[in-house]
Amino acid sequence: MNYDAETSIARDPSQRRSSESVSGYLASLAIFVSVVGIFWHPLRLIVPALVVALVASGMAKGRLQFAAVLIGAVCLFLGMALAVSTGHALW
């Protein structure tokens, strides 16, 4: 008897995999931390947020994950520019 797990379970194609759901939460967390990092220790917050955004992007390909990486990069630039221009600590 042939058993194929893919065909035996009737799965709705609109259902999301759990990795895609976790990836969305990680991407939204990375966006939030990146925006906070503009005003408070950019290197300490934004660089790890970029790593989380890249992990989320590797887990699932989507617009939110791509946006998290782009927003993180823009926030890193803005946070570093703001910290240098005002003389605040980068780390």
Short description:
With 91 residues, this protein is mainly α.
Word description of this protein:
- This protein is mainly alpha-helical and 91 residues long.
- The protein has one domain.
- The chain contains four helices and no strands.
Keywords summarizing the entry:
single chain, 91 residues, mainly alpha, 4 helices
How are helices and strands ordered from N to C? HHHH
Overall helicity: over 70%
Mean pLDDT reading: 87
Count of distinct structural domains: 1
Structural class: mainly alpha
Indicate the low-confidence ranges by residue numbers. Answer: none
What gap, in angstroms, lies between the N and C termini? 62 Å
The total of helices stands at: 4
Strand content: under 5%
Global Rg: 18 Å
Total DSSP E strands:
0
Q: Name the shape in a single word.
A: elongated
Question: What is the makeup of the main sheet?
Answer: none
Topology (elements, then pairings):
Layout: H1 5-8, H2 18-39, H3 42-59, H4 63-86
